[in-house]
Amino acid sequence: MNLQEIRNIARAHGVKPGKLDKEHLIKTIQIAEGNFDCFATASDGVCDQTGCIWREDCFAMAARKTQPH
């Protein structure tokens, strides 16, 4: 999902996107929804939230975070 789409979702939840990066903006939206701010924490590729709209981006970002530099 691109950043503009995420900003639109944020606004729909009453979150002001400001200059937050993608990861922090999604985590802020998750909190506003009453969920855990777990985005990009599925480092082992396991998540039980099968209906999450962030799932694809979450796994991709979590995988990048665990790759050696």
* Count of β-strands: 0
Determine the mean pLDDT.
Answer: 94
SS-based class: mainly alpha
Overall tally of domains:
1
Binned, the helix content reads 40-55%
Distance between the termini: 25 Å
Q: Which regions are unreliable across 5 or more consecutive residues at pLDDT < 50?
A: none
Task: Tell me the β content.
Answer: under 5%
Task: Count up the helices.
Answer: 3
Radius of gyration: 12 Å
Largest beta-sheet details: none
Q: What would the principal axes of the Cα set say about the shape?
A: globular
Order of helices and strands: HHH
Description of the structure:
This protein has one domain. It is 48% helix and 0% strand. The protein is built from 3 helices and no strands. The termini are far apart. The chain is mainly α and 69 residues long. It has helices at residues 3-12, 22-32, 55-66. α1 packs parallel to α2.
What are its keywords?
single chain, 69 residues, mainly alpha, 3 helices, 48% helix, globular
Q: What's this, in brief?
A:
Helices cover 48% and strands 0% of the residues. With 69 residues, it is mainly alpha-helical. The mean pLDDT is 94.
SSE blueprint and pairings:
Layout lengths: L2 H10 L9 H11 L22 H12 L3
Helix pairs in contact: 1-2
